[in-house]
Design brief:
- The complex is a heterotrimer of chains A (about 300), B (about 325) and C (about 290).
- By secondary structure, chain A is α/β, with parallel strands linked by helices.
- Chain A is built from 12 helices and 10 strands.
- Chain A has 2 domains: about 80 residues, 3-Layer(aba) Sandwich (Rossmann fold); about 140 residues, Rossmann fold, CATH 3.40.50.1980.
- Helix content of chain A is about 40%, strand content about 10%.
- In chain A, helix 6 runs antiparallel to helix 7 and helix 7 packs parallel to helix 12.
- Chain B has a single domain, classed as ABC transporter involved in vitamin B12 uptake, BtuC (Orthogonal Bundle), CATH 1.10.3470.
- Chain B is built from 12 helices and no strands.
- Chain B is globular.
- With about 290 residues, chain C is α/β, with parallel strands linked by helices.
- Chain C has one domain: P-loop containing nucleotide triphosphate hydrolases (Rossmann fold).
- In chain C, the strands form 3 sheets. In chain C, strands 6-7-8-3-9-10 form a 6-stranded mixed sheet, with helices on both faces.
- In chain C, a hairpin with a 2-residue loop joins strand 4 and strand 5.
- The chains are: A alpha/beta (about 300), B mainly alpha (about 325), C alpha/beta (about 290).
- Chains in contact: A-B, A-C, B-C.
Chain lengths: ~300, ~325, ~290
């Protein structure tokens, strides 16, 4: 039993070691820099739309790291990637020494993880237009570039107002915004009421054919037929934008002749990637949607060139 | 295969010391190695931060690896089945459901707590279903576990189906099992789970003699003075608790609880007095190395793949190896 | 049974069935009193079972299928709790022994020797020392000596490092008996130890048991099917029928046609072996 006690003592010491080693103090997170602070601004952007906003505000040279999915603008793609909010490469984050990180998340643990390694984390939202605009303002405040933020906000709001003006007076059709069907299933995801895309449709002078408030419900063909949309926008991006896939999507839709949009030939397959990104290119997105929805507008000058 | 001579106290302590040294070496290597070349950095503050992150990961991996290996060993003895792993009785399903429901409906920070509560509830349910007149027989225990696992699989599928696509992604990711969640305010939780693992290891060390006898035969064990029913109950509860705690902390990392006891049995023989301390330390070392491998793989992509992916990939080749060597040899003997 | 012993004591001569002189006379070592047991209510397997076993005797429990032999043995080992009656070992009831103490006094050799793990012969025999080793199960030189002795007595030293699975049935059975010897128990309970063995190994096992009883003063209680084997080696026989003792005594007393025929419900004859003086049972084909 003597040796048993010794063995127990050894493992207890090990446990104490483990517990003691865990009581490490986290380095204090850096405080937000005041306007015109001397400390250089190093920004980590963890969402594609936030990256676009930062570059649109002229802060592109301050961005030191991005998430894996930030692909636009092309200058951003050259930056080192640190993963995404689900799985962050914390070592690389520390290596980049950012002073502030902007991310889109509702979870509590991701900002805390960043704060634990000494990076000030600002969690933003962009589910609605108002939230996106608020995020731009917040970024301006956090980085001390309120003027640039205001310029971007003005640009966006003016652009959207122009699109609204163009479609004013035109009939408001019922529009369904959908993604292509997943392979092997006839079901598809559509934009419900209250989503960002829904707000874009409103700016583009249309009513959402899907009547209920929902994020991205999945519909069967019967449900789509039941909704009876007058115009259908299918947003095919990435792998779905391959020519054979596009053709398959067009053929699938052409089959459903009882849908008013199909009968009227108003099913538009759009391959623009920015239609669902709540960022600076919403003006372009609204314009593209408006032209797709309202045949009267085609032929006029395209709106919303990139600033 | 080495078949050492009988187990004496002196050899036991020497083996413990040897394993401890091995673990310290592996842990040190895992803390010092990584994709970022931190030794070229000027800022000592940043280096300290990264070392802190790695130390946290190494300790968590050690505790979880040790827990799962111990639980796997205990279940293999309890169920007299070398294919048993810690998740076979449904505890991981209960812990997973608790974590998922908590992160969807309540708070993600409380998720480990809910996970552990889910595990406790599962232990109670499995016991209630499996026991007959207070006795836990291996066969009924196994069947109950299969049933409970099926139930939890269905429940989790339902929750996932009702969740939003974004939530589905994070749930799917968590279910793969990953150590890389560094949160310094989570260190008390890790310390508690660590203490639990150590306590269970000590308990199993005292039960090791009984495990040997029970594996030989229930009657033989009873005749040699082993309280078989008490042994089964204690082993079941202890192994389930430590499994539930691990899953609640890092998700269901697979194959560690299955492979580690097996490999050790091949090397050290079926004597549980050797296998219990060996499983504790080897499980820790195994998972620390697996986590280190995933972190080194981060240089290939942008982030490390979840460690559960790596351990799952080890599973297939391991079973092929088992099939071709040990089982065929056993069949020939018979 | 007890009646004979009483009569004999009154007459001043040792009665048949009583312990031989010098083999620990006095109180019997194992006493079974009024044992009753049922696996299901209403289906009693044992009822009012009573007999004694003296120290240093090789006793066989005989009886047809369903007579309760195995149930009785399991109660003696402590694996089952009797519904009625009690069992006393050296005057103390089994229920009053602490579990560890009981394991140091009673050894059990089960019928089935297959195991779920590949322990070596030495490890298996060392397991018999577990009632003597501490909580963590460390072994001391005393344990190794007992194990080596047990291997020597059962002539299994040559297999010490081999895995149990590689041995033949007879060799495995000797190893399990070695385990029981290593336990240094006074009472060994065996459940049909020769059930799956050929005649050479059957005689080897019984010969070993008889030697251990004679040389080391063990008491062995053996459940058996084989009447002739029991007749050849046992000191005492206990014949069970329908959960009760039908006859008890030396082989010559128990193996009599008038005793056996009603119990086994089979016509048989009993002859005496001229060489050994022991009875043997003869069956004839076709006679019903």
């Amino acid at each position: 039993m003597r040796f048993g006690a010794m063995a127990a003592a050894v493992v207890c010491a090990l446990a104490a070691l483990a517990a003691g080693g865990c009581q490490k103090e986290a380095p204090a997170p850096a405080p937000p820099p005041a306007s015109g602070a001397a400390a250089p601004l190093r920004i980590l952007s963890l969402a594609p739309n936030l990256t676009e906003i930062l570059f649109a505000m002229g802060l592109g040279d301050r961005v030191v790291g991005r998430s894996t999915y930030c692909a636009y603008p092309p200058e951003a793609a050259a930056l080192p990637a640190v993963g995404d909010t689900l799985q962050l490469n914390l070592e690389r984050v520390v290596a980049l020494k950012p002073t502030v990180a902007f991310l889109i998340t509702r979870r509590d643990d991701v900002p805390r993880r960043l704060e634990a390694v000494g990076v000030r984390a600002v969690a933003l939202r962009s589910d609605h237009m108002s939230e996106m605009l608020q995020s731009v303002a917040t970024i301006g405040r956090e980085t001390g570039h309120e003027a640039d933020a205001q310029m971007l906000l003005d640009h966006i709001q003016v652009g959207l107002m122009r699109v609204r003006a163009r479609v004013k007076g035109l009939p408001r059709p019922k529009v369904l915004f959908a993604f292509p069907m997943t392979i092997g299933s006839p079901q598809m995801m559509v934009a419900g009421r209250g989503t960002f895309v829904d707000e874009l449709l409103d700016v583009a002078g249309a009513a959402n054919a899907y009547p209920k408030t929902a994020d991205w419900p999945t519909l069967s063909p019967q449900a789509v037929i039941g909704l009876g949309p007058e115009v259908v926008i299918v947003n095919a991006t990435a792998e779905d934008a391959a020519p054979d896939r596009l053709e398959a999507v067009r053929r699938a839709w052409a089959n459903w002749t009882s849908v008013p949009a199909v009968k009227a030939g108003r099913v538009h397959v759009l391959t623009e990637t920015f239609l669902t990104i709540p960022g600076p290119r919403v003006v372009q997105a609204a314009a593209v949607l408006a032209e797709a929805i309202h045949p009267e507008l085609r032929g006029a000058t395209p709106e919303g060139a990139r600033p | 295969m080495i078949r050492p001579r009988p187990v004496t106290a002196r050899r036991y302590v020497a083996a413990l010391g040897g394993w401890l040294v091995a673990w310290v070496l592996v842990a040190a290597a895992a803390v010092l190695l990584g994709t970022e070349n931190i030794w070229a950095w000027e800022s000592w503050e940043s280096v300290r931060t990264v070392l802190g992150i790695r130390l946290y990961l190494v300790l968590t991996a050690s505790i979880v690896g040790a827990s799962l290996a111990l639980a796997g060993l205990a279940f293999q003895a309890l169920l007299r089945n070398p294919l048993a792993d810690p998740y076979i009785l449904g505890v991981s399903g209960g812990a997973s459901l608790g974590v998922i429901l908590s992160s969807l409906c309540f708070s993600i920070l409380l998720a480990p707590l809910f996970g552990f509560v889910g595990a406790l509830a599962t232990v109670a349910v499995v016991y209630a279903v499996a026991q007959r007149r207070g006795r836990l027989e291996p066969y009924t225990l196994l069947l109950s576990g299969v049933i409970i696992n099926a139930f939890y699989g269905a429940a989790i599928m339902l929750v996932v189906a009702l969740a939003s696509p974004m939530e589905r992604g994070s749930i799917a990711y968590w279910m793969m099992g990953s150590i890389g969640t560094f949160d310094p305010r989570g260190t008390p939780v890790v310390a508690v789970v660590g203490g639990l693992a150590v306590a269970v290891a000590v308990v199993f060390a005292f039960l090791a003699k009984g495990f040997n006898l029970v594996v030989v035969g229930e009657d033989t064990a009873g005749a040699l003075g082993v309280r078989v029913e008490r042994l089964r109950l204690v082993a079941f509860v202890a192994a389930s608790l430590v499994t539930g705690a691990s899953v609640a902390l890092v998700g269901p990392i697979g194959f560690v609880g299955l492979i580690c006891p097996h490999l050790l049995r091949l090397a050290l023989g079926p004597d549980h007095r050797r296998l219990v301390p060996a499983s504790f330390f080897f499980g820790a070392i195994f998972l620390v190395l697996a986590d280190l491998a995933t972190r080194l793989l981060a240089s290939v992509g942008d982030q490390a793949p979840p460690v559960g992916v790596l351990t799952a990939m080890c599973g297939g080749p391991f079973f092929i190896y088992l099939l071709r060597t040990r089982w065929r040899r056993a069949a020939e003997v018979r | 049974m007890a009646k004979d012993a009483d009569n004999a004591a009154a007459a001043g001569t040792p009665a048949p069935g009583a312990p031989a002189p010098g083999a620990g006379r006095g109180a019997p070592y194992l006493e079974v009193r009024g044992l009753g047991f049922a696996y299901r209510p209403g289906a009693a397997v044992l009822a009012g079972l009573s007999f004694d076993v003296g120290r240093g005797r090789l006793v066989n429990l005989l009886g047809p299928n369903g007579s309760g032999k195995t149930t009785l043995l399991r109660i003696l080992v402590g694996l089952l709790v009797p519904a009625e009656g009690e069992v006393r070992l050296a005057g103390i009831a089994l229920a009053d022994y602490p579990r560890g103490a009981l394991a140091r006094r009673i050894a059990y050799v089960p019928q089935e020797t297959a195991s779920a793990a590949a322990f070596t012969v030495l490890e298996t025999v060392l397991m018999g020392r577990s009632p003597h080793t501490g909580a963590l199960g460390f072994e001391t030189p005393a344990d190794w000596y007992a194990a080596r002795e047990a291997l020597r007595l059962t002539e299994t030293e040559a297999f010490a490092e081999r895995s149990l699975e590689e041995l033949s049935g007879g060799e495995r059975q000797r190893v399990v008996i070695a385990r029981a010897i290593a336990q240094e128990a006074d009472l060994v309970l065996l459940d049909e130890p020769t059930a799956f063995l050929d005649i050479k190994h059957q005689h080897a096992i019984y010969g070993l048991l008889a030697r251990l009883v004679a040389e080391r003063g063990l008491t062995a209680v053996c459940v058996s099917h084989d009447l002739n084997l029991a007749a050849a080696y046992a000191d005492d026989l206990v014949l069970l029928a329908a959960g009760r003792v039908a006859a008890r005594g030396t082989p010559a007393e128990v193996l009599r046609p008038e005793v056996l025929r009603p119990v086994y419900e089979t016509p048989l004859e009993v002859r005496t072996d001229e060489v050994t003086g022991r009875p043997y049972v003869l069956l004839r084909r076709g006679a019903v």
